[in-house]
């Protein structure tokens, strides 16, 4: 899978994303990140996410750098670039773009686990190929 | 159980409870309500809440009237008055008091269910007696 | 404005809406309610919501009855029926429908205020007419 | 300020912190981080946080590594180690400890800004000294 592949999902900053500083609260950005990953996995790949029958995806690392604050009503593009790090681990590099300007950068890393043992497991080949073929 | 019995739990309005209007977002109050109910059930009654081994508590109704806005850093008292409506249903009347003034009134009604069938079930007598004896 | 007028907004139950009972947390439903009201006000009426230049909308009451639990990935229709109670107060009756079945009923009541005095004020006629003409 | 200085705040994982995987949702950890920072700043230092009269604290970077999942009802210690990176920037290294085991590691970096210009500004000496003297 090429690092250049990007998927873009439009979001709106809602009142509950904001805080008393008049900007989006720093943890709200992970809502935008989650929405984009869920939409990629379910709508583009047809994978039940993050809970599938035989495997779950769990987040093992999250990161965000806030360059410009987002405000109530902002229309933002969440740009997602998935990278298969191993058969068990996928990294999503994420940018938020508002009116052509990058406001936020971050990433989320997830592992696939067996929900019965809670141990990391390799994704089935058909799922992995779907992600690699993006 | 007398309607006069009340339990009081202190909370602080945190930055993530607020929104761009500079006040606590209306849905955040349910966080204060939930905290108070969880503390009553776990700390005062020793009941795993809302997930116990053989029964779960699920919320079937919620209500709040916002008389005065709460702000960042406000120290509030969440006053909880539980009422056993039946062996399956408990109602918690809730007030929020800030510096002697009632700012918020509401209630949460919960039913006990069997998590295997997701049907309402009567609480075990020992649990029910704990609640009634409050 | 006729009580029969309804607006429908599609939502998806996301992982962060759910809790350890495997269902949408009861306070998450107010996120669905808020989204629908914000979309009605901004997209259909062109009103900056809930923060406009000369007036703000603040929530004064919220209510929800949970008939059937919602689960991760559920596609739901949030059905909104606004009612002008006075020049200062609007009530939104709300239902959530999943695959033709009503799962949730509730309402949100909001007042318009002057953000400088934090007192209730009448909405400007042009705004009020927009809402009444829905 | 020595890197060894640590402040510990006790938290409980609440039902609304969890998701349908039965564990704390990854963004909920930032609630634990925020609580600890707010308590340090307000209770230990007497600083209005994150909104003071002449300066605000805004988050410019956040990071978390999830080693072990947290579950409903877990009693956790949030261990906070503040570092003054400059007169404008403070970093909080954070660990979560459950029953002696480190489950989570992360950090939050904040800048002080002038809320009128939204530009980074140096903290007043008395505030800075309070933090350095921790």
Given the C-alpha coordinates, what overall shape of chain A results?
elongated
Q: Could you give the count of β-strands of chain A? A: 6
Task: Kindly give the count of domains of chain A.
Answer: 1
Structural class by sheet pairing and helices of chain A: alpha+beta
* Number of separate helices of chain A: 2
Word description of this protein:
Chains A, B, C, D: It holds the Pfam family 4HBT_2. Chains A, B, C, D: GO terms for molecular function: fatty acyl-CoA hydrolase activity. Chains A, B, C, D: InterPro entries: 4-hydroxybenzoyl-CoA_TE (IPR050563), HotDog_dom_sf (IPR029069). Chains A, B, C, D: Belongs to the 4-hydroxybenzoyl-CoA thioesterase family. The structure is a homotetramer of 134-residue chains. With 134 residues, the first copy, chain A, is an alpha+beta fold. Chain A has one domain: Hotdog Thioesterase (Thiol Ester Dehydrase, Chain A, Roll), CATH 3.10.129.10. Helices cover 18% and strands 40% of the residues of chain A. The longest helix of chain A has 16 residues, at 29-44. The A-D interface holds A 20-21, 23, 26-27, 30-31, 34, 50-51, 56, 58-66, 69, 108, 115, 118 and D 20-21, 23, 26-27, 30-31, 34, 50-51, 56, 58-66, 69, 108, 115, 118.
Notable characteristics:
elongated, 134 residues, 2 helices, alpha+beta, six-stranded antiparallel β-sheet, 6 strands, 4-hydroxybenzoyl-CoA_TE (chains A, B, C, D), Thioesterase (chains A, B, C, D), hydrolase (chains A, B, C, D), Thiol Ester Dehydrase, Chain A, HotDog_dom_sf (chains A, B, C, D), homotetramer
């Amino acid at each position: 899978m090429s690092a250049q592949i990007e998927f873009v999902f439009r979001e709106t900053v809602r009142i509950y994303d904001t805080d008393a500083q008049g900007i989006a609260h720093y943890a709200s950005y992970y809502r935008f990140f989650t929405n984009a990953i869920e939409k990629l996995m379910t709508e583009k790949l047809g994978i039940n996410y993050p809970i599938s029958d035989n495997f779950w995806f769990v987040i093992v690392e999250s990161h965000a750098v806030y360059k410009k604050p987002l405000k109530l009503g902002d229309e933002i593009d969440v740009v997602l670039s998935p990278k298969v790090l191993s058969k068990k681990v996928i990294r999503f590099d994420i940018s938020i773009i508002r009116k052509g300007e990058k406001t936020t950068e971050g990433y989320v890393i997830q592992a696939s686990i067996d929900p019965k043992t809670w141990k990391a497991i390799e994704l089935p080949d058909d799922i992995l190929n779907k992600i690699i073929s993006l």
